[in-house]
Queue: 2 jobs
Job 1
Amino acid sequence: MVQVAVLGYGTVGSGVVEVIEKNKEKINLRSEAELNVKYILDLRDFPGDPYEDKVVHDINLILEDEEVKIVCETMGGIEPAFTFSKRALELGKSVCTSNKELVAAHGPELLEIAKANKCNYLFEASVGGGIPIIRPMNYSLTAEKIESITGILNGTTNYILTKMEREGADFSEVLKEAQEKGYAERNPEADVEGHDACRKIAILSSLMTGKYVKYQDIYTEGITKISAEDFRYAKELQTSIKLLGMSKDTKDGYEAMVAPFMISDDHPLHAVNGVFNAIFVHGNMLGDSMFYGRGAGKLPTASAVVSDVVDCARHLGKTIICIWDKEELSLKDYRDSSKEFFLRVKKEGWEKAKELFEIQQVVEIIDGEVGIVTKEMTERAFEEKAAKLPEMITRIRMEK
Amino acid sequence: MVQVAVLGYGTVGSGVVEVIEKNKEKINLRSEAELNVKYILDLRDFPGDPYEDKVVHDINLILEDEEVKIVCETMGGIEPAFTFSKRALELGKSVCTSNKELVAAHGPELLEIAKANKCNYLFEASVGGGIPIIRPMNYSLTAEKIESITGILNGTTNYILTKMEREGADFSEVLKEAQEKGYAERNPEADVEGHDACRKIAILSSLMTGKYVKYQDIYTEGITKISAEDFRYAKELQTSIKLLGMSKDTKDGYEAMVAPFMISDDHPLHAVNGVFNAIFVHGNMLGDSMFYGRGAGKLPTASAVVSDVVDCARHLGKTIICIWDKEELSLKDYRDSSKEFFLRVKKEGWEKAKELFEIQQVVEIIDGEVGIVTKEMTERAFEEKAAKLPEMITRIRMEK
């Protein structure tokens, strides 16, 4: 019997208990052990809950119980999750987490502690919810030099953008509806400003490079300025607008960014709609591959946490290899990266725009303005030219 | 130093040597060992090849060399691959293979021998080429009860169907062109008749159930009868025609089948075009997920074989869990499975068709015939009714 403790009995934590219970037979078979949830740590009580007798309020009860070999940290946030995880690992208890904030902020440190104590710190659920991506990167793409990762990493924003596209609605309208339906938080900033996607692409970039990519270094732009008009242009250009997390190994350094992009309709990410997420990986031998599924939600996320629990149970007393060094990777200044840009310019700025930009396509579908697709240029060059063009209404990056 | 032997220096085998050489640094880091290709077994010599001095003609040289810990079987076919793999495993040498024929025919037996000799029989490259799917099923989806798998599992047929769709061309025309370009074999039967996809869905079905699904038991239909006219109807119905391998856990038993299907344009598999493959997996907790990438080709397939080599190197002397029992799973008679059907009927059969079938949609786009979509019905009921309708031109199954 392998005893498990769940820290935080919220959406994901209660999902973990449910998954372990519902798929018990399959899970025990694959773990080659019998898993049992012995404790659930939460500040609250849950009278009437089928597992109410497992609920405890003191972390020390769990840490001091030598029977507990695996801890699921589904609390979210940095503290007290960080302290609890560290203490568990120091005691040789493996930790499985869905907490992307903590993984992005302290991943390498926690991995090091796990290694020193012959246990594991696993975080499959921290990126892409239920989509297997961390384990495929660590266990499957081992013969590859991964050259780029492009992901739709946040379900809330993808839901909003898909709805804007399909209904021709504006951002604020759709956000309100999403909040009413529970698809967006009352305080939606972490999602709509791209912070959540930024944590996730930071984690993926770290695994891609084996070094520590700090999320604070990644240029991040959200979707709050995207309008119904932008989607009219997107359609005309046979693209869709998606919030992408990107990471690329280029000749002159690594670049990473989170921003809304127009993505063409022959790109596999184009068809990823609603709350679904997908991670597009390009390897030097493999070429293109993509991992698709539910990027959030109670049971898909819990399923990923429990897959980590199974992996820990299979490797009790042994650390599974995860190459993520403490050494920080310095990213290229995003201004030195090159792209094509789409911009909307008021009619009166059109002559000036023609002088400033090398233009590859012009779209005229809205009165009083012109849509322009530039040739590839650096972000820096774009910013300099855009500063001379007060008639510019908006700009969106493009990805082929 | 971990010594590796490659059996068969054809497309995949030479790819394996190339991948190990090109990505040496990353691969050794992830293997926590230095890998070296010591032997290449082939009947031929390769004068001028950079690795010509590694080429040997006698399997015993490899089997008797105790330094060789890992063998890549990239010969294809049942014999002598089966005998060589068995002998290697009996000597405690792990075997990594791209040989779907052998895995589908003797997988459980070879896994058992590997287990008895504390080594591994791994076959990531046998399904989906470079797409990580075997390892995600065995290591990642461990908290799931997988309820269905639907795959585009053969690159050649998907290339042909995509080209037929885009160019309005007929099967034989496109096949000829594909053969000239080397995308299809001179003897294309294994691909176009669905035999290759059948081996692959048999392997996936076995991993899904943990039992032995024999490929001989899977009803298999190829794409040779699909015509340019069928694609005109497909387009009208907002679908595409894809050769699908399917496996489902239903209330009254497991069902598996390979056949061309009309698949609607909101299904993620709809956008999988050309030589790409994808495997769509539905789990009871996870919901829908999909794994996409290059299903064939020298380097992608070799990359998957080498990822197995890395896994073997990480687990020398230890067998990695793979639940695939020798016990045969008896599949449901395919005639008892239910679907919607599309059929084309000559105009003179239209009145009779209306009497025979419950019809949900009618399409009239070609003179002298009528296209019909039936409501869901069993294969058996369909066959019985179709036998009474000599005016039926063709029928294609539908998948939503």
Job 2
Amino acid sequence: MSAKLIDGRAVAKRLKTQTAALVDEVRLAGGSVRLDAVMVGDPSAGAIYARSQETRCQEVGIEYRLHALGTDATQEDVEGLIGRLNRDGAVTGILLNLPLPEGIDTPAVQYRIDPYKDVEGVNPSNIGLLFYDSPIMAPCTALAVMEILTEAGVDPKGMNACVVGIGPIAGRPIALFLQHEMATVTACHEATRDLAAHTSQADLLVVAVGVSGLIKAEHVKRGAVVIDVGINRVEEGGETKIVGDVDFEGVVGVAGAITPVPGGVGPVTVAMLLRSAVDAACRQRGPRRIEV
Amino acid sequence: MSAKLIDGRAVAKRLKTQTAALVDEVRLAGGSVRLDAVMVGDPSAGAIYARSQETRCQEVGIEYRLHALGTDATQEDVEGLIGRLNRDGAVTGILLNLPLPEGIDTPAVQYRIDPYKDVEGVNPSNIGLLFYDSPIMAPCTALAVMEILTEAGVDPKGMNACVVGIGPIAGRPIALFLQHEMATVTACHEATRDLAAHTSQADLLVVAVGVSGLIKAEHVKRGAVVIDVGINRVEEGGETKIVGDVDFEGVVGVAGAITPVPGGVGPVTVAMLLRSAVDAACRQRGPRRIEV
């Protein structure tokens, strides 16, 4: 028996079609959708990523602007730029590329992003509102995982869920979402003593570590839903391949459903970011619960 | 064999002595420590609680002021009052009593509290900073549990920890703290299918539900550390008794260490609130990472 494949590309395609239609609606209403990205540090490293962001925005009709600061940028420089983007009515969404250079207080910078323009939901205020199950904008990877579960007809309520990896961008927000959906969530990480003891009890296993081949067949309960958030570049026979944290070949024979890498969580996360950018634009003129 | 009793009153006494000394230091330096409590709704229900807050503050030399608004107070009224307390330099700490009347957006009100005066660490921004493991002020019950663990010589790293109850005031922040300390944390709640299956695997069991007698001997692993956050009023033979969520008589024979109720987490939480009030006062004139 082989697990049902969850097709992230199909989910992403559907989301992007909806998003493009929403962008048109905003335009027809006289508005616009614009995403301003902030990049701090080595410009050569960020350039490829920025071009990819721009292309993806253009595909759904979102205007994209890049603001690059050098490695010598100070806390005040970065916060000042974000403040200007907050006040600029033409900017409907702000994306802060990480990591920031050493010496910069990252959460303090994220705190400056207008919570209503915070398309990645990284402002501590937005994280706290998510914690209170009262979100305005939320982290895209977690939104993507929840969208995939909905798409696959998985209701986390009462499930034993195991999230491996507790990073602030993926694992930690995912665990919070699953908890709000009333799964019984166990969060594992590098200090977990017996990883397999936890993962093998999970009806729903989400892996977000960044170590290829970490999760093998023996880690997985038969019939479990396995969501692989990892994106790892590995060299194989002189070629670079993208693989997840899950040993797909081994686990596909045990799991009930599984997301592949590539073609799983990755494209849905990108699609969710674009969706959040439109959501932000739609809310720009609406009532606000909190003010910066 | 009987579990080691963790004496919360002794921990609280030591904390209060330190706090009173800190208040004196602040005074000698020309400052003051003042805690302003906001209470919205039925004044008769809140009066007893407010008097108790005042007494506790006075015990360590903290000035206490109560601001009561009626049940007809609007979102703007409550946020406006908090804004005035933020701007008042004499106010060094703000405490917002919950629950707020229906129709009030509680997280939006909490968001208005200056993060540096937020003695209970309930502002979504403070919650988010805690989530990023970069806190300014944090929820007092979670701080109390961590203090108790330190006092009892328990290092959560690598432990299987189970937190029962995922409320926003106690269970959810406690789970976050334990995760930061690298415990493998499982969060259980009313939708958990087999509670005993999870709790009986836990080296560290924290219970914060509000149901007396919920956790019995059969739920507990032999030798486990059991922290009972519950405070429940029960009638027994015509008398009102305070008990926790843990069936103390049964569990004391199985656990390795246990906090009693009363005399466990409760007094330490109060002491932690007072400590946070002094911390806030000490930071009033210092540098700030974030601004309201």
